[in-house]
Design brief:
about 325 residues, alpha+beta, outer membrane lipoprotein receptor (LolB), chain A, Phosphorylase Kinase, domain 1, 2 domains, six-stranded antiparallel sheet
Length: about 325
């Protein structure tokens, strides 16, 4: 008989037992996530993290300082195209050296650290449930797992690993319906408090290379309305209209609506197309986002969001019915 070496047995035992504790309830999970929100904003920290989304792998460096002068933050890339974001009392400024990072409309840089409106996520009408899990070590720090689990197939879930002592985020993963990661962020090194190198907050890029970030705008032609021209009669559970912009002009109608469940957001665009324009319908994937395009007469309906394909297709089909009836 071949016996497994003692060292291998010990390793197997460690793997089998590490990070295993009884799951905690929603109140424990909410408290931990509240601690994370406060820590990420109010503490001073510095570290290197790796962000993985499909075939894209980015290594980033962050310095976040919270002191009597306010909050200052610098985030910049260590691999791939140059990316840098600086946040301070003067607003948010950035550098993107690859053209794929720029789109036609004014868009704020994708946030590497998700915002969590807890009052919505753990409400009785929420499409999510909160749960605590096991413990492990990440970047030399003890970490506790907190999960945001979807109650249906219309949204993704999250796993967060938080530093037990402070609540700082050490790792997160965006998970599909099979609990497979669509995107992951993990710190490989993290320093907290007075031990950080304060000099790293200063950018070595030229001031003229930065552009000031602006929120989404349709310039001065936007008509803000309380009710969009078209509204789906049915939406996936928990999703509600949160913003609406409309533009009318010689080039036709442009309407933009955002629907959200408090955590995930879906953009819906209804645009008039030139007569005879070819519109290719169907689902496409853009990183962790899914997009669905439909044609209804001379109108193109585009739905995009960091949600499952089922969600964007469902909303697009309902919007097409609304367009057809009006």
């Amino acid at each position: 008989m071949n016996l497994m070496p003692r060292r291998a047995l010990l390793l197997l035992a460690l793997i089998s037992t590490s990070g295993v504790v009884a799951a905690g309830g929603p109140s424990d999970a909410r408290k931990l996530l509240e601690n994370m929100t406060s820590a990420m904003s109010e503490m001073t920290y510095q570290g290197t993290f790796v962000y993985v989304r499909g075939a894209v792998v980015e290594t980033m460096r962050i310095t976040h300082i919270a002191d009597a002068t306010g909050i200052r933050e610098r985030l910049y890339s260590l691999s791939g195209p140059q990316r840098e974001v600086v946040r301070d009392q003067n607003g948010v400024r950035c550098i993107f050296k690859d053209s794929s990072s720029v789109v036609e409309d004014q868009v704020v840089v994708s946030n590497y650290f998700p915002e969590l409106p807890l009052s919505v996520i753990d409400s009785s009408a929420s499409g999510y449930s909160l749960e605590t899990g096991g413990r492990t070590r990440i970047a030399g720090h003890k970490a506790r797992l907190v999960s945001i689990k979807p109650k249906d197939k219309f949204r993704y879930g999250y796993d967060f690993w938080l530093q037990e002592k402070t609540g700082l985020l050490l790792k997160w993963a965006l998970l599909d319906a099979n609990h497979e990661p669509l995107a992951t962020l993990v710190f490989t090194e993290l320093t907290v408090g007075s031990s950080i190198n304060v000099a790293e907050i200063e950018s070595d890029s030229r001031a003229e290379d930065f552009i000031k970030m602006k929120t989404f705008s349709l310039e001065n032609t936007v008509e803000r309305q309380s009710k969009p021209r078209w509204q789906p009669e049915k939406l996936p559970p928990g999703f509600e209209l949160t913003s609406h912009n409309r533009k009318s002009g010689s080039d036709g109608v442009y309407e933009h609506m955002v629907y959200s469940d408090g955590l995930a957001a879906v953009s819906v665009y209804v645009e008039q197309q030139a007569p005879g324009a070819v519109i290719k319908s169907g689902v496409s994937q853009l990183g962790t986002n899914n997009a669905y395009i439909r044609k209804r007469g001379e109108l193109q309906i585009t739905v995009i969001g960091e949600v499952p394909a089922l969600t964007v297709r469902t909303i697009a089909d309902e919007m097409a019915r609304a367009v057809a009836s009006n």
